[in-house]
Design goal:
With about 180 residues, the protein is of the alpha+beta class. Helices cover about 35% and strands about 20% of the residues. It has helices at about 10-25, 35, 60-80, 160-175; strands at about 35-40, 85-95, 100, 110, 120-130, 135-145. Strands 1-2-5-6 form a 4-stranded mixed sheet. Strands 3-4 form a two-stranded antiparallel ribbon. Strand 5 and strand 6 form a beta hairpin. Helix 3 packs parallel to helix 4 (about 160-175). The radius of gyration is 19 Å and the shape is elongated.
Length: about 180
C-alpha cells in the first residue's frame, strides 16, 4: 500500500502540514488577516512595473502581487478591528528599482534599487463594519520618494520597501 508520506519529500511536506495545522488550531479567536481583507488587482497586466525580471513571467509577476497581498493580510490581522473588513483595489503599482540588462550575464534578473526609481501605488480602499456600512474610504496615490531612508526589517525580503510603505499606510489610515 502506498502511503502519501512514503517519500522523503512527502514525509517532510506531511510533517510541515501537520505542524501548520497545529499552529492554525492553536491560534487565538481573533479573525485572520485573510478574513479581514480583500485585495484586488484588476488589469494587473497593465501595471507600470511588477516585473520579476527584465523579461517578466506571468508567474513571477503574480508571485510579486501575492507577496504584497500576504503582507497586507498580516498587517490587517492586527490593524483592522475584528468584525470590520478592508477592501483594497489597486489600479497601478510600480515596484522600487529597475532592471539593468545592459550589465549582461544574469544581471537581467537583479532589480537594482536606486532613489531615482521609487515605488508607487495607486489604489482605492474601503473599510466597512460587520453590517456592511462604510466606515471610511479613500483613494491613494503614494510615491515614496524617500524610500531609501526606510529601514527594512528583513534584508532578504525582495519587496521590503513596498511592504514597509504599505504597512505605514495601514498604520496611518486604518489602525
Amino acid at each position: 500500500m502506498n502511503h502519501p508520506f512514503a517519500s522523503r519529500s512527502g514525509l517532510w511536506v506531511g510533517a510541515l502540514a501537520l505542524a501548520l495545522a497545529g499552529l492554525v488550531t492553536s491560534a487565538s479567536a481573533h479573525e485572520s488577516g485573510a478574513q479581514k481583507l480583500t485585495v484586488n488587482f484588476p488589469n494587473w497586466q497593465h501595471y507600470t512595473d511588477i516585473r520579476d525580471q527584465y523579461s517578466p513571467t506571468d508567474q513571477g509577476e503574480m508571485e510579486n502581487l501575492n507577496h504584497l497581498k500576504r503582507h497586507l493580510e498580516r498587517d490587517a490581522a492586527s490593524d483592522v478591528p475584528d468584525g470590520d473588513h478592508l477592501t483594497i483595489t489597486f489600479s497601478d503599482i510600480k515596484l522600487a528599482g529597475d532592471f539593468e540588462p545592459q550589465r549582461g550575464g544574469n544581471w537581467d534578473e537583479v532589480r537594482f534599487i536606486k532613489s531615482i526609481w521609487p515605488p508607487r501605488f495607486n489604489f482605492t480602499w474601503e473599510l466597512t463594519d460587520a453590517s456592511g456600512r462604510v466606515i471610511r474610504q479613500g483613494s491613494e496615490h503614494i510615491v515614496a520618494m524617500d524610500f531609501k531612508d526606510t529601514i527594512v526589517p528583513d534584508a532578504t525580503d525582495s519587496l521590503g520597501y513596498e511592504d514597509v510603505i504599505l504597512r505605514n499606510w495601514m498604520d496611518e489610515k486604518i489602525h
